[in-house]
Amino acid sequence: MAHFVFFVLLFAGQVIGGFSTQKLPPSDNGNTLTILSIDGGGIRGIIPATVLDYLDQALKARDPNADLAHFFDVIGGSGTGALITAMLATPSPHDPTRAAFTPAQIVEFYKQNGPHVFNSSRPGNGPQFDGKFLHDITRELLKDTRLSQTLTNVVIPTFDIKTQKPVIFSNYKLEKYPYFNALMSDISISASAAPTLLPPYYFENDGVDFNLISGADLSMISNDLVNGNPTRATVSEVLRHNKYSKIVVLSLGTGTPETQQIFNVEMAATWNSQTWLIPLIIFLDRATTSMNEYYHGSLFRKPTINYLRIQEYELDPDLTDMINVAKENMEGLEETGKELLEEKVKKINLNTFCVEEGVGTNAEALDRLADILYGERQHRLKQKSMEKGGRPFLRVPSDKSEVKWAFLKNKVM
User: Fold this and answer.
1) How far from 242 is each of 78, 168, 231, 248, CA to CA, in Å?
2) Mean pLDDT within 93-115
């Protein structure tokens, strides 16, 4: 009998392990849709990549045979977040069922290559940098992977400067609009083309010309100066193409400057058209961040949508420069990401726009989220096995497969 039980356990483990390396099965009408959204912010992408490393390790502790892309129905990113999205969703050339990069490897990528991307010896003709190194390294990393080949659905917003229209690359569009099935390298380069910093990117796919710059869930004021939060675009794309019962959204920021009063009315009264420039940039950053938080917080108050935003709302002013690739600055950004994990969960009060602390730390919230993501994946794999006429998997302990929604709603939010 003992030998029989051992055989059953071994067989079940092999079956589950085999499914673990496959794309997350589709959600049915009773399941949860899982969404990851990553902001833009240049070299500050080190912050969300560091946070994702914690979540990745938490998930691998539950299932070492799966990567982040196997737990999310959709990953959305703008600017530097689009590059992170592509690196997480691109299959490895050594094993097409696994991701090409882990978040830890992405952090190292930024630290090693950031100084070459934002290199003052590579001036552009108009933009501050020529973008050649970024273009070359992105093509090398993502190779010939196309949008249709990603490990999970991705949503990457851009903006076409010729047609003056947003262009949102999404797996959901491919059946009806096959010309969106571009190389992930072309998509990522386009999404990183922040005006004044990097040149617009031109490419052709399936007979259609694209003339793109970075685009995000913002009015197109100056994407290179304010953080691009793609959450609205990502969630909107998901809702247009999916039936759902519940949605979990993890939104990761790249930091926003400390909320302190550095200007006053008397000072502002003496400013001229030139001295207004820097304050105006800061005001735009504040206003855009606050209004995005207001919109997302209002939209996601629905009981069927659970929203976790992890953002450093008091980023050290010395770390705010998106193109500061000095070694000490990049190490400071990585340390900020680690410290952010130990901070209390925070959210914007929708009435006062003040930042308020929630219950527990961001790390604790991510641990609970890992339970939910793992449980949802196991649920779908079990459904997939039964649909194929197989026997149900052995029951997984309830603390991992049947996580209560109250944890995320009451503890995290």
Assistant:
1) 22, 17, 16, 14
2) 97
Count of CB atoms situated within 10 Å of the CB of 223: 24
- Element (H or E) spanning 170, and its range? strand 165-170
Concatenated DSSP letters for 347-358? Answer: EE-TTT--EEEE
**What is the C-alpha to C-alpha distance for residues 321 and 281, in angstroms, rounded to an integer?**
12
Q: Is 79 left (phi over 0), alpha (psi -120 to 50) or beta?
A: left
Q: What are residue 34's phi and psi, to 5 degrees?
A: -115, 130
CA distance 151 to 217: 24
CA distances in angstroms from 26 to 17, 379, 383, 409, listed in the order given: 18, 11, 10, 24
- Six token digits for residue 270: 């003496």
Q: Are the C-beta atoms of 179 and 130 separated by less than 8 Å?
A: no
Q: Is the pLDDT of residue 149 over 80?
A: yes
Q: What does the DSSP assignment read for 321-354?
A: -TT---HHHHHHHHHHHHHHHHSEEEEE-TTT--
User: CB atoms < 10 A from the CB of 370, how many?
Assistant: 23
Angstrom distance (rounded) from CA 310 to CA 341: 9
What distances in angstroms separate CA 371 from CA 4, 38, 111, 195, one per listed residue? 30, 21, 31, 40
Rounded to whole angstroms, the Cα distance separating 303 from 245 reads 10
Q: What is the mean pLDDT of the chain?
A: 80
**How far is the C-alpha of 248 from the C-alpha of 302, rounded, in Å?**
11
What pLDDT is attached to residue 341? 98
